Amino acid sequence: MSDTPSTPDVDSGSVSVAEVIDERKHALDSIEERRRWPRSVLGETATLRALSGAEIPARPVDNLSEGGLHLTAPIGFGMAVGQRYEVLLGQPDTGNDPLAGEVCYATVVRTRIVLDSSGDGDRLGVGMCFDAPIAL
Q1: I need a surface site. Which of 12, 46, 51, 90 has the fewest CB within 10 A?
Q2: Left if phi > 0, otherwise alpha if psi is -120 to 50, otherwise beta: which for 113?
Q3: For the domain 45-130, what is the CATH superfamily, name and number?
Q4: pTM of the prediction?
Q5: Phi and psi angles of residue 93, each rounded to the nearest 5 degrees, phi first
Q6: C-alpha R_g of the chain
Q7: What is residue 119's predicted lDDT score, i.e. its pLDDT?
Q8: Tens of pLDDT along 20-31?
Q9: How many CA atoms lie within 13 A of 100 on its CB side?
Q10: Domain limits of the chain?
Q11: In this predicted model, what pLDDT tens digit does every residue of 71-119 receive, in sequence order?
């Protein structure tokens, strides 16, 4: 007997392709439900500093919540799941950003390659979880 988990045999007709797709959609839905805070698009930026001192210049934040953020960065900064960063939110020099100067720490929890479709070059989508919730 094998220790490898069995997978549905789609070709034999025992499981329909639609059932496999539904199962995968359900799995993705359950991932979404793990988020504890609603996400907002606030037009914020974030500058990331690795604990080693390397800095990733200000990037637009795709979405932000009390528990984390998602942004897209150029490939080449070496960002990977598990890395920790100091996150500087907002742009202090504008004077009208309520989160300007907010500093927190976050860990990369998800990355995804974003292929170029607009001429900007391939990028890396990065999901980060804050060590402690921030007030929005």
Answers
A1: 12
A2: beta
A3: predicted glycosyltransferase like domains (2.40.10.220)
A4: 0.67
A5: -80, -10
A6: 19
A7: 76
A8: 666 665 555 555
A9: 8
A10: 6-35, 45-130
A11: 998 888 888 999 999 998 886 565 555 566 778 899 999 999 988 877 7
How high is the pLDDT of residue 10? 44
Smallest CA-to-CA distance from 114 within 71, 83, 82 is with 71
For position 85, what pLDDT does the model report? 94
**End-to-end C-alpha distance for the chain, whole angstroms:** 54
CB-based contacts of 125, cutoff 8 Å, min separation 6: 62, 70, 71, 72, 110, 111, 112, 113, 114
State the pLDDT at residue 107.
94
- DSSP assigned state of 5: P
User: CA-to-CA distance for 124 and 113, rounded, in angstroms?
Assistant: 5
Mean pLDDT of 41-58: 86
**Nearest residue to 44 (alpha-carbon basis) of 79, 77, 69:** 69
Distance set, CA 33 to CA 22, 64, 78 (Å)? 16, 16, 29
Q: What are residue 28's phi and psi, to 5 degrees?
A: -65, -40
